[in-house]
Amino acid sequence: MFIIGELINGMYADIQAAISSRNKLIVQNCALEQVACGASALDVNCGPASKNPLIDMPWLIEAVQEVTDKPLCLDSSKAEVIKAGLKVSKNKTIINSTTADEEKLDVLLPLAKQYNSQLVAITISKKGIPQNKDQRLELAANIVAYCQDNGFPVEDLYLDPILLPVNVAQEQIKGILESIHEFKLLCDPSPKTIVGLSNLSQGIRLRSLINRTFLTMSLAYGLDSAILNPKDNELMDALITAELILNKNIYCDSYLEAYRKK
Fold first, then answer.
1. What pTM was computed for the model?
2. CATH superfamily of 2-261
3. pLDDT tens across 38-52, in order?
């Protein structure tokens, strides 16, 4: 699985303080710790408290790039912030994220093409959050069709079925799992699939247990990527074991250690 570390985010107090004080060391340590724990890429988000994201996003990216060449997932709801980050990015990039609305796709898809970036698309529109699998699939199909019509390679597209907290949307979770599978059937080559895992357990006491149970189930439905906390050892152990059971890795008695070294 392509693991995107979620911890370089201004919503976390230490990162917010690092942004305010321009303390690169905190950000760089966070980056290196996530990579050491198995992150394939790093999400970079200034957070809602950033007073000047057009300056903060490039600063974060430049700080991270000093210590790792891992791909960076530029995370902002504002296209101008994404563009500011892309301008200073030397590492491979992923834009996180567009919605299914054409006015959003009209802005972010050309940026993805211009900067040779991959693109995360959330199956949501200005009409609101989809309430069932069929609505998610319709939005996903519209996104795929838009990419095909505008010359963006679908294999560089990540579709996000939008995870909701299980304590308020329990009845939707099974449909979300089924959506992950059905997104892969929309075209050939197929789009990739991704979830923001922590959204599932917002406001829940047993967060790690909920997250790792869903993650192992979603792997069986074909999930390609997740934005998650790679420093959660139990979560990562469950992920590695699920991939082993799905025959994606070769068994040995020390498979956890072997996978981490890989």
1. 0.97
2. Dihydropteroate synthase-like (3.20.20.20)
3. 999 999 999 998 999
